[in-house]
Amino acid sequence: MGIQNYVGKKLDNLGSAAMAVAGGVGLAQFPSYLAQYIQRLGGHVDEAVRWGVQYADIGKRAAELKSGLEAIVGASGIGKLPAFVANIDWEIAKATLAHYTPGIALDAQGVAYLGAGALGGLVLYEGVKAGSKAAYKGAKRLLSKKKVKPTA
To answer: Helix 80-87 crosses helix 56-74 at what angle (to 10 degrees)?
Structure first.
């Protein structure tokens, strides 16, 4: 039983480390994605402003895009994520993702997202592990109660 316990602990450590790395690296992509999104959004704003002189609807779109751009750029650090979510333009977001180049910013903001992602990955891993353990114990208990006892 000792070797199984040892191997189990090592696999648990490996699983939590893998989830921390996956979560950290995953969320650390946000600053790079946001920079590319802002670049595209800015291009759409410029285009809409140029055409806005001729068409009222495009002028309205230009104002909406410009407002979103200002909100995202004006937010600080970790506040950029909620500002992005509140002002996302799905058409631009899909186009950005289609041409996205992964990257990790090594400034304070990038490190903060990396840490938050790592913490989120660990919490997710521990939650799944605890849920699986509880389900296993519940199933084992349920199966042990259903055993038929022989009658004399």
So the answer is: 160
Summarised one tens digit per residue, pLDDT across range 96-135 is 888 888 887 778 888 888 888 888 888 999 999 999 989 9
CB 52 within 8 A of CB 58: yes
* Spatial separation of the C-alpha atoms in residues 93 and 39, rounded to whole Å: 11
- Tell me the one-letter amino acid at 83: A
Judged against a pLDDT cut of 70, whether residue 56 lies above it is answered with no
CA angle at 104 for the pair 98 and 108, rounded to the nearest 5°:
135
The residue among 26, 31, 54, 58 whose CA lies nearest residue 44 is: 58
**Whole-angstrom distance, CA of residue 59 vs CA of residue 57:** 5
Q: Which residues contact 89 (CB under 8 A, 6 or more apart)?
A: 41, 44, 65, 68
pLDDT of 79-93, one tens digit each? 888 999 999 989 888
Tally Cβ neighbours within 10 Å of residue 46: 13
